[in-house]
Every structure is written in structure tokens, then in C-alpha cells.
Amino acid sequence: MHFLPLIGLFLPSYEYKYAFAECGRSTLEGNEFRMPKRAICLGLVLTFFSLWSSVVQADYLSNFRACRSERDPMRRLACFDSVEVPPSSANEAEQPIKPSQPVSFSLGRFAIDNEGITTFARVRFTPTFANFSNKEVVALTFNLRITNAFGQDIIVTKKDLDIIIPAGKIIQSPKYYFWEKNPASESDFDALIGPISTGRAIANVQIERVAFSDGTIENY
């Protein structure tokens, strides 16, 4: 109980500071520490840690909402990585956070290729996937949806991808997807170039099925 006076230093109320000091003093000075008084002191300890946990949890939720509102994909990913998840108990702290599905979309990168002497300008998208399963991934099918700053669909398509992702690894796709400028008519490039240039294009990737090296296929 020697830590009780120290806890009292962090309490905003004078009454709480005094109560914790008294609990600690009764132990340090060897006074008689009867059961009713012990129950009161333990109650104060539990109340303190409950309030502290609530403050930490509220701070975490605030940081999480701020990251979710970040429009730039790279900044949003870095923001989420920097947020520390407060454990609600010692047991939960030892348990890793598992994704909703064993193979998931991790990151998407946009790039712009300027027009050359023999090539037209184009925009590229390269996805990265994470394999949290204990099996090697050899192929997957995913649905790709790219929206602008207003949330309007620009691209909605389904793609098959042959990719090797060892168990427990995060791998960038060896293949990228591109939309090229068509000088003769308006194309998807014209709708993509603006949002990508301003960093407002958002890629949403939903994995539909995954093929593993052992021959099994999982549908999501």
C-alpha cells in the first residue's frame, strides 16, 4: 500500500488526495489497519484506475477517428500505425489483434506517368496484400473501387491476380493496373487524373477469393 500517497498526487480533488494520503500513512506509520478502512482504501484505488482507463480509452478513440478522416492513403496508414491501442486487461494485452479475414488488402499506391515521345500519359495503381494465415497464397480475386473527393465512383472492376504471399508476410503486387489517356476520346484517365493529382482518390479493395499453395480456395 506504499504507492497510495503517490497515486494521490495525480488526483484533481483535494478530498481524494487527502484520502489516499491517509490510507498510505496508516501503513507507513504502523497504525492499526482495520477491515472497513482497508475496504475504503481499496475502493479508492479501483476508482482511480477506472477513471484513468476511461481517459486513455477516450484518447485512443479520438486518435482513431482522426486517422480515419485522413484522405491521403500513405498518411492514413502511417497515422494508424502510430496509434497505440490501450489494453483493457493484462490478458487482452497479450492477445494480438487479428484481421477480419486471413488475407487482406494492406495498401494501394497511385502513380502518374507523363506522356512520352511514343507513349501516352497514364495513371497506375499498385496494391499490396497481407497474408495472416499459416498457408502460402498463390492467387486471389479482388474487387477494386476508386472514388473521387465526393465519394463518386470512377472505377469499379474485378481483377484476378497471380501473386506469391508467404504465410505471415505483406507483399506488394508484381503487377500494376493502369488507365491510359486517349487523345481521340474521353476515358477513365480523364476522371482519375484530377483526384490522383490532388491526393483525393480513394481505392477500396475487397478480396473475393484466395487460392493457397496446398490447393485450397477460400471465398470471402
From the structure above, extract its key features.
6 helices; 2 domains; Immunoglobulin-like; alpha+beta; disordered N terminus; single chain; 8 strands
Indicate the topology.
Blueprint lengths: L3 H5 L5 H15 L6 H34 L4 H10 L7 H4 L9 E11 L8 E10 L5 E11 L5 E13 L4 E3 L4 E4 L7 H11 L3 E11 L4 E3 L1
Antiparallel strand pairs: 1-2, 2-5, 2-6, 3-4, 3-7, 7-8
Structural account:
- It comes from Rhizobium calliandrae.
- This is DUF4352 domain-containing protein.
- The structure is a single chain.
- This protein has 220 residues and is of the alpha+beta class.
- The chain folds into two domains: 4-92, no CATH class; 103-219, Immunoglobulin-like (Sandwich), CATH 2.60.40.
- 36% of the residues lie in helices and 30% in strands.
- The chain is built from six helices and eight strands.
- The strands form two sheets. Strands 1, 2, 5 and 6 form a four-stranded antiparallel β-sheet that branches.
- A hairpin with a 4-residue loop joins strand 7 (202-212) and strand 8.
- Helix 2 packs across helix 3 and helix 3 (35-68) runs antiparallel to helix 4 (73-82).
- The model is unreliable at 1-20, 26-36 and 85-97 (pLDDT under 50).
What count of helical segments does DSSP give? 6
- Mean pLDDT value: 74
Secondary structural class: alpha+beta
How many distinct beta strands? 8
Low-confidence sequence ranges: 1-20, 26-36, 85-97
Helix content: 25-40%
Major sheet characteristics: 4 strands, antiparallel
Principal-axis shape: globular
Please, how many domains? 2
CATH architecture of the largest domain: Sandwich
Element order: H for helix, E for strand = HHHHHEEEEEEHEE
CATH class assignment of the largest domain? Mainly Beta
Question: What is the C-alpha radius of gyration, as a whole number of Å?
Answer: 27 Å
Strand content: 25-35%
CATH topology tier name of the largest domain: Immunoglobulin-like
